[in-house]
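Hallway conversation turned thread

IA: we were arguing at lunch whether anyone had actually written out Aldo/keto reductase end to end. Turns out nobody had. So, for the record, here is the sequence (274 residues) and right after it the structure tokens. Reply here if something looks off.
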Amino acid sequence: MPEHLSERIQLNNRIEMPWFGLGVYKAENGDEVVQAVQTALRVGYRLIDTASFYGNEEGVGKAIRDSGIPREEVFVTTKVWNDDQGYESTLKAFEESREKLGFDQIDLYLIHWPVRDKYLETWKALEKLYHDGKVRAIGVSNFQIHHLKELMKHSETRPAVNQVEFHPRLTQKELLEFCNEHQIRLQAWSPLMRGEILDHETIQEIAKKHGKSPAQIILRWDLQNGVSTIPKSVREERIKSNADLFDFKLSPDDMKKIDSLNQDRRIGPNPDDF
């Protein structure tokens, strides 16, 4: 369990990734995303998660360069979008992302969604990028157990990370267990369920008990489940508050109560239908 914001976890290829980071989905390219990333870096975040689909890779790169923090201290994730999947098109999309970010090397490159009949070829392109040293680690996003099994059957390299929708209404226990068993780090997107779960009486009650916000309770629950988490925000006070997770611990009873809120309910698309 991480004890402070800068703590890192070792991935299955021995690269270290921070447990906690900032997601920038829907942050507008330009001042909005630059300010959000710079705020996060000032607070102590060292993981920034973007994607070609978000349209803000330039702003993320600029914010990191202008921060004065050495590039090697900031872990940057981006993703290949569905329209660009396939072997050659993925290699081309990667170069475009790398150019927009302005970095020689990307820390983690993910397949954004498991596009049927495409993701195996896309993965071969990611393996090439990894073997060529252009990325430090490769992984996937929104992959179910059957996608992961199929991928591992046809590839040399196991994904280092699987980034999925994960929150108290979608606890994905079987997927978490499978990923742990195969040394694939699960990472939560939309951990706060776009705010929907924050008013739930169980979360409110646990928050009151610990003197913490409902968001802090849920993000702490992620970490205690061994799940890396990347809540998104562009607001300075929220970015600071989201990271204030390391001076309390949820009890086993707290964890069970939050687990019991599961309804297998998604707010994003189902990867099998997307």
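OS: looked through it. DSSP finds ten helices and ten strands in the chain.
IA: good, adding that to the notes. The CA atoms of residues 47 and 214 lie 22 Å apart.
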